[in-house]
Amino acid sequence: MITIKEASIADLNTIQEIAYKSWPDTYGEILSQEQIDFMLNLWYTSDVLIDNMTNKGHFFLLAFDGAVCLGFASYEHNYLNKNVTRLHKIYLLPEAQGKGAGKLLIDTIENLAKENHSVAISLNVNKFNKAFTFYQKIGFEIVDEYDTEIGNGYLMEDYIMQKGL
User: Fold this and answer.
1) Distance (Å, rounded) from C-alpha 89 to C-alpha 110?
2) pLDDT confidence of residue 155
3) Residues 42-52, mean pLDDT to the nearest whole number
4) CA 156, 158, 160, 161 torsion: positive or negative?
């Protein structure tokens, strides 16, 4: 049975391990290894994760099957001072995909968003990420596109998706 628990700073190593194990599988066909390494170093250092948790209002959830952590998600209520909950990150170990952990993480965030009186959940997804169809299947719709330079000449090409609550 998959269970969800709120993460703390004590769980940083688990979050980092899952990110480093899942990103090559998630992005290996659409980004260079150099860009994957750059982005992991940009967003998954301990300092950045601690800043997200303590100063930026990001909450992290972990999905477990027994004692094994399958993946994590992070979210923020009142994103950009709007009545929206933002799904910032969701990653599962490659071997955990298709077991319901991702859906359970999103359902948990959806329930927390409703408790917070959010009117929607928003997220960005790479235009070429296979997770795009998963998001569509569970009710997210494209509301915009967002291309941004992230440094070192790398470009993020995303859809902004939203699900009304």
Assistant:
1) 14
2) 87
3) 97
4) negative
Q: What is the dihedral of CA 121, 107, 138, 130, to 10 degrees?
A: 90
Q: Is 81 strand, coil or helix?
A: helix
CB half-sphere exposure, 21, CA atoms < 13 A: 17
SS3 1: coil
Predicted TM-score (pTM) of the model is 0.95
Residue 142: phi and psi, rounded to 5, are -70, 130
In SS3 terms, 24-75 reads as: HHHHCCCCCHHHHHHHHHHHCCHHHHHHHHHCCCCEEEEEEECCEEEEEEEE
Residue type, 147: D
135 in Cβ contact with 97 (< 8 Å)? no
Nearest 5°: the CA angle 149, 150, 151 is 100
